[in-house]
Write a structure and sequence with these properties.
Elements: H1 5-10, H2 26-35, H3 38-56, H4 62-73, E1 76-78, H5 83-98, E2 106-110, E3 122-124, H6 131-137, E4 145-149, H7 157-166, H8 177-196, H9 200-206, H10 214-223, H11 232-245, H12 257-265, H13 269-280, H14 283-290, H15 296-304
Parallel strand pairs: 1-2, 2-4
Antiparallel strand pairs: 3-4
The structure holds zinc ion.
Zinc ion binds at residues 1, 181, 185, 234, 237.
């Protein structure tokens, strides 16, 4: 997930010229309510949830949340004393736990300036050695650590997400989207590890190859988001994020497992196949979706073997 698109996204916003920091103002909430579309009401739910977190932030103790994350989920944390990151991490861990997804081993907040993740909002450690991380931090992060970028102003993430959804960069405008997205990279990687053992790393790297099939790209842009059309790995994180966000109870911010499963079943046929192939690491199937369309003769040959 990239940070830099925020500046581009602003120019698409005609509804409010002024950028707002912090809590989402009443005027914006009223506008969303007035629009009364499925999407605007979803955004309204997220804004109300975000404002509730914002109001509680003064009384939030990142150290206490860190202890709870360790006790309940065995997740090591370094929130850099940022209460927003602590709160978002705890909410996301509870959501993913309830849906039965593997959780990250650690959640860190680090300034990623100077690394290859400098413009990313976060990333997940899936390889034991990462040269640019090692160079900056003089050590690697443990495998399956989810790292969020301290360069991002997490207290204004809701505003960012509204813009991001508006330009279809993100499939949802929910304030927890980036956290859920990164947790899903980890859950996907863990699933491949479980299925393929050490070979899982290699299978995961196949999912990081760019899509070149224009039909597949168009389908993902329509069903999920522009960012998801980058490669299968981002597609699955974006798709899962959307399914999870759509299953959240707006008051408790916990998912409804039944709604999650039902929405998953409602995916269009081709998308359903692509999601399964990516999640389960079916490389052969995935490559058919990913690559430039085979010519008919080639396709017939493929079908023979
Ligand atoms: Zn991602």
């Amino acid at each position: 997930m990239k940070i830099k698109s925020l500046n581009n996204a602003n120019k698409y916003d005609n509804s409010s010229k002024k950028s707002f920091k912090g809590m989402i103002p009443q005027k914006v909430l009223e506008d969303l309510k007035k629009q009364n579309t499925k999407e605007s009401l979803k955004l309204l739910d997220s804004c109300l949830g975000f404002n509730a977190v914002y109001r509680g932030i003064e009384n939030m103790n990142p150290d206490r949340i860190a202890r709870e994350m360790a006790d309940k989920f065995h997740i090591g944390t370094d929130f850099g004393n940022n209460p927003f990151v602590a709160a978002f991490s705890a909410l996301t861990a509870n959501i993913c736990h309830k849906l039965g997804f593997a959780l990250p081993s650690n959640v860190y907040l680090k300034d990623l300036t100077g690394t290859r993740y400098s413009n990313c909002m976060g990333f997940c450690t899936v390889y034991p050695y990462d040269e640019s991380i090692f160079r900056k931090f003089r050590e690697g992060f443990p495998l399956k650590t989810t790292v969020f970028n301290a360069r991002q102003d997490w207290s204004s993430i809701q505003e960012y997400m509204i813009q991001s959804k508006r330009v279809n960069h993100s499939p949802t405008g929910h304030f927890l989207s980036v956290f859920i997205h990164e947790f899903m990279h980890n859950a996907h990687f863990s699933n491949l590890q479980e299925r393929f053992g050490r070979k899982g790393e290699r299978v995961f790297s196949v999912t990081q190859r760019k899509f070149t099939n224009q039909d597949t790209i168009a389908m993902i842009k329509k069903e999920t988001s522009d960012y998801g059309a980058k490669n299968p790995c981002e597609m699955i994180a974006e798709e899962m994020t959307e399914l999870i966000v759509d299953s959240l109870n707006p008051k408790t911010l916990l998912p409804n497992e039944m709604i999650f499963k039902m929405n998953r079943l409602k995916e269009p046929f081709q998308m359903d196949k692509l999601i399964d192939a990516c999640w389960n690491g079916d490389v052969k199937q995935l490559e058919l979706f990913r690559k430039k369309k085979f010519k008919l003769k080639e396709l017939l040959n493929k079908l023979k073997d």
